Give the backbone structure.
Amino acid sequence: MIKILVADDHTIVREGLKQIVAETHDMIVADEASNGQEVLSKVRKMAFDIIVLDISMPGRSGLDILKQLKHQRPKLPVLILSIHPEDQYAIRVLKAGASGYLTKESSPDELITAIRKVSLGGKYITSSLSEMLASSLDIDFDKSIHKTLSDREYQVMCLIASGKKIKEIAEKLSLSVSTINTYRFHIMRKMNMKNNSELIYYAIKHELID
């Protein structure tokens, strides 16, 4: 029996995942978490075969949690299930140690297939993500200046580029306004940009936002 820890800050998503898993014969949602700290705490107390993790939970980002999980439990497979399109985060989370990436628009059958494959030590990569991974080997892609950003800076950049105000971003990430402003300062400096308009143009040009 595959024991799953489901981590998502939305109750309706967790309930939906439990219903999907309940229809299978070889897996069970053994526990659930609504934020990153709960994930880390429950992994220390209980053994799981796989974690299905959202990367947009309150507090520490899912990317931060993923990195700490891989440090504490390097052999524990993590499948990312996110609202964000593959082209925004998939390559980053795979490089950070995730075993697969699915969007929440994926079908229940695809999710079950991914869980089974990842729990056995495999990698689950969609065909579209395979193409992106191949493209990531391109020299021009590697020279894209957004690649110099930390994971948190990249997350803040995408939110700014999508039109979110600093206060909205602070509330979404459970950080202070001053902290978000500091991230914005570092983003602008690293990317050699002067204002949000330049940032938005860059993000659209590189298809980092919808």
User: Anything to note?
Assistant: The chain has a mean pLDDT of 88. Residues 90 and 185 are 25 Å apart (CA to CA). Residues 144-205 form a domain with the Arc Repressor Mutant, subunit A fold (CATH 1.10.10.10). The longest helix spans residues 177-191.
